[in-house]
Amino acid sequence: MKKYFFALVSLFFNFFIYANGDYAVSKISPALLKNANAVLRFEEIKFEIVNTKEAIETNHYVITILNENGDKWAEFSEYYDKLREINFVEGFLYDANGKQLKKIKTKDLQDLSATGEESLVDDSRIKTHNFYYRAYPYTIEYSVEIRYNHTMFFPGWIPQGDEKLSVEQSSFTIICPSDYQFRFKAFNYNGEPQITTEKNKKITTWMAKDMSAIIKEINCPNWHELTTTVIAGPTDFQLGDYKGNMNSWNEYGKFLYQLKTGRDKLPDNVKQEVHKLADGIKDVRKKIEVLYEYLQKNTRYISIQLGIGGWQPFDADYVGKKGYGDCKALSNYMFSILKEAGIRSEYTEIVAGENANYMTDDFPSNQFNHVILFVPLAKDTVWLECTSQTLPAGYLSGFTADRFAFAIDENGSSLVRTPKYGLKDNIEIRKLNATLSDDASLKIETNTTYKGLEQDNVHNMINYLSKDKVKEYLQKRLNLATYDVDKFEYNEIKSTIPVVQEKLDLNVSNYATITGKRLFIIPNIMSRSDLKLNADDERKYDIVLHDEYKHIDTVEIDIPKGYEPESIPQPVTIETKFGKYLNSVKLSDNKILYYRTREQYSGTFPAKDYPDLVNYYDAIYKADRNKIVLIKKETN
Predict the structure, then answer these.
(1) Is residue 547 packed enough to be buried (19+ CB in 10 Å), middle (13-18) or exposed (0-12)?
(2) The pTM is what?
(3) In whole angstroms, how far apart are CA 143 and each of 85, 95, 129, 306, 542?
(4) Is 331 left (phi over 0), alpha (psi -120 to 50) or beta?
(5) 194: how many CB neighbours lie within 10 A of its CB?
(6) DSSP string, 131-147
(7) Would you report the helix, strand and coil content of the chain in percent, each value rounded to 5?
(8) In the structure, what pLDDT confidence band is assigned to residue 20 with cuts at 50, 70 and 90?
(9) For 353, phi and psi rounded to 5 degrees?
(10) Where are the beta strands (DSSP E) in 478-548?
(11) Which residues pair with 233 in a beta bridge?
């Protein structure tokens, strides 16, 4: 119990200081109320490393909720499992004057399973609580103590966890034996942490006060680049019976390699099938494709998270017999299949998610949430997403493309980059033929080719939705007022840069506008940009554009006979550092001929360029909606 004494005394001491009306909203500085939905009145996070097997975290925080948009800050939620135990929770509710209204303890919390739908088994659970108070403003206070049965992960410190949260005061303290070295990296923190020594313990503290609320801007940098952040990690650490060191990526890789050593033994029937499929193929890349298809046809993804199993893959024999596994197990299984075929590959950790392509590459630590497979060849590299039953070999999709990954190998582990799919890869080409009726309705036939990242959403739609659901989705997807999908057809071409071909037949009611003798029609039927930015914003942060693509549209519209042009838009050409756009339209033999191309570039641009970006998007928005005006010819 002695090791918990310091934390409990600290919690009591801070509660005593901040009780007796100090939570009154009237005490908050007006500067901290500006742009804020909530104010972090007080926060004290302490993390004590007892030894390499154990650590204790205490967190005491007080937040004033100013309006309904701040209610998300009022909910308490902490997960626990075999590696992370919740020892103690206490909570209080205060009114606007700082008067205590309610008090709760650990027994009052909801205890819920954290298992998702795709999990077969998972020991993760969540303790959660909410006072559900809605008389604004109000204040909540929580204190929690958590015991870590490992030292592989350290908590980080971000006083401003999101936008529109201001901070009165916050601190983060790491306590460790005086001879233990831990690592940290600070962002937007002025000065150095305060370091003291007490009874053979080193105490390192970061503090922040009076932080005004931040408003996120569209296409802004990562959150840690906007506000104070400290990340921390161990040197020597332990997870279960496995010991490791994180002084370098290679050292950390040795630890991860331990976790999978000896787990590559395949069942005999799988070995036989591997040789039956691969031995007659001379081309290594083709051999990989065939074996990857075997994996996809004979396994499925199911999450399995139990204790150290959250980090250690199930062995290949288990996956081969059961036919399922999580990302770790399936990647290790594919590693084992390739090994049996004489092909070297590397089990690779990565952070997955759309536009989640940042990691602190100079800070060795577990910054990953997913595992894939890296296959280095003599003149090429093949990447394999082993949880997918539909992706082609060599293609990663926007889920894991263009970011660092950590390739783990017995001869030395290192950071590598996954492929970036650029302007030449991400292409959408649409050819559209339409007929306009006398009643202003439009009958459309389109042929669209999606390539690279542009086909990701379509690929998922046609592979994971039923035909009825696809039609239902198409009835909502298109930017048309009233339309029916008469027919749709898809064809996939699986390659390193995959392609999806789409054919649609549509009927659009009242597409054009007929007023007297005049007919008004927008020739850009299916590719209008909806993005407009607020020109009044005063930009503070750099502009970060992630997407890179090229769209080409060719449109032919047959119009009723007897019309002649009254007004045809001039060609539009826009060239900027953010991208390029052009369109043109003409009338020929009762046909409207429209051409549009747009190239979007990625990159980081200074805040001063924001007005140019606003103008660029605004110009595209307007050009996409330019109308042709036709007039009915007089008849004798």
Answers:
(1) middle
(2) 0.90
(3) 15, 18, 12, 27, 37
(4) alpha
(5) 12
(6) ----SSSEEEEEEEEEE
(7) 20, 40, 40
(8) very low
(9) 140, 150
(10) 483-493, 499-508, 513-515, 518-521, 543-545
(11) 183
* Cα angle 224, 227, 230; round to 5: 60
What was the pLDDT predicted at 635? Answer: 67
In this structure, is the dihedral angle defined by the CA atoms of residues 205, 207, 213 and 216, taken in order, positive or negative? Answer: negative
473, burial (CB in 10 Å: exposed 0-12, middle 13-18, buried 19+): middle
Q: How many DSSP H helices and E strands does the chain contain?
A: 10, 38
> Residue 418 corresponds to which tokens in the numbers above?
């996954």
How big is the chain, counted in residues? 636
- Identify the residue whose tokens are 């009915």: 632
- For residue 1, what pLDDT is reported? 35
- Axis-axis angle for helices 268-278, 284-298 (nearest 10): 140
User: pLDDT digit string (tens) for 121-141?
Assistant: 556 789 999 999 999 999 999
3-state SS, residue 56: strand
Q: Closest Cα partner for 452 from 364, 527, 346, 551? A: 551
CA distance 290 to 338: 11
d(CA 502, CA 449): 6
Residue 596 neighbours by CB under 8 Å, 6+ apart: 524, 527, 551, 552, 553, 555, 581, 582, 583, 624
Tokens for 342, please give them.
Answer: 């004489």
Among 226, 227, 222, 229, smallest CA distance to 546 is for 222
How are beta strands 346-350 and 370-376 bridged, if at all? Answer: antiparallel
User: What is the rounded distance in angstroms from the CA atom of residue 600 to the CA atom of residue 530?
Assistant: 15
Q: Which residues of 412-444 are buried (b: 16+ CB within 10 A; e: fewer)?
A: ebeebebbebeeebbbbbbebebebeeebbbbb
**In this structure, are residues 76 and 123 in contact, taking their beta carbons and an 8 Å threshold?**
no
Average pLDDT over residues 143-157: 96
Q: In what helix (H) or strand (E) does residue 611 lie, and over which residues does it extend?
A: helix 610-623
* pLDDT tens-digit map of 417-434: 999 999 999 999 999 999
Whose CA is closest to 70, among 41, 99, 97, 46?
41
Is residue 508 within 8 Å of 441, Cβ to Cβ?
A: yes
- Condensed to tens digits (0 to 9), the pLDDT of residues 312-321 reads 899 999 999 9
- The percentage of residues in the chain with a pLDDT greater than 90, rounded to a whole number, is 85
Q: Each residue of 278-317: pLDDT tens digit? A: 999 999 999 999 999 999 999 999 876 554 557 889 999 9
The closest of 129, 133, 121, 99 to 19, measured between CA atoms, is: 99
Task: Say whether 552 sits in a helix, a strand or coil.
Answer: strand
Cα 466 from chain centroid?
A: 26
Residue 568 burial (C-beta neighbours within 10 Å; 0-12, 13-18, 19+) = middle
- Give DSSP secondary structure letters for 217-272: -TT---GGGTS-EEEEE-SEEEETTEEEE-SSHHHHHHHHHHHHTT--PPPHHHHH
Distance CA 47, CA 153 (A): 11
H/E stretch holding 298 reads helix 284-298
Closest CA to 311 of 88, 82, 481: 82
Asked if 310 and 367 touch (Cβ cutoff 8 Å), the reply is: no
